[in-house]
Each structure stands twice: as C-alpha cells, then as structure tokens.
Amino acid sequence: MTVISQLIDGNTTISLNNQFYGFMNMSEAPDVQVSQSDTYKEINVTGQVSNLNYDGMKLTVLHDSFNLQPALSGAQFKMSKATINRTIECTINLSPVNLKSWAILFDQELKKYEKLFGTILSPEEINEKFKNPPK
Question: Is residue 111 part of a domain?
Fold first, then answer.
C-alpha cells in the first residue's frame, strides 16, 4: 500500500510501505505509478471509531453535519432541537505494519504542521478549556 499525504503547503509526501519495500536498496526500487481510483472521494473527517484485533485495526471514518434550522425556528435558540446527521463514510483495515507506518507518517506530518501553524490542542485539552474558560 502506498500512503500519499497532501500537505498544506502543496508538497506531496509518498511513503512506501516498508512491509514490501523496506528490504530493497532504494536505487533498485521500482518506479511507482500513482493514479486516482474511479471511486476516489475526499472525506472531511469529523470523527472516527477504531477497533483493534489480531489482524491490526479497523478504522471507521465518520462525517457529521449539523442541522441548526429546527433550533433557530422559535423565538429562542434551543440546541436540543438541532440534529446531527452522521454518515459512516468508510472503514479502513490496517495490518499491524500499516498501522505502525500510518502512526509514523501522522506523527511526522503533525510535527511539520505544528511547526508551521502552532500547537494543536488535544480533544481533552479543548474540553478542559470549555469547562474552565479564562476569566
């Protein structure tokens, strides 16, 4: 499997899975032909669920869209009347080697992103800020 990540600055990083190519001298590596699948789609991820097993990990990608119209329909805004439409976009099955490769890739890309744009708060840190807002 080839992992391609598009960075904010437009550079493309292609990471060859070491499961297949790690044993090769890179001067002997085959030419990599990249094409886009006919069923390709770009997903704006708003959530994920993972499930570990002996084969690796299943990652289910979710997308939530919010319908605030019902909450705005009365004289007073009522969040309880809003709806969230959750779409299960896909499930990605990662072998243990692929899982490790993705973890390394994401760690590297996250470090580059934070160097360019600043630290990203974790979900826990964001929740803590909302619980205890600055005064």
Answer: no
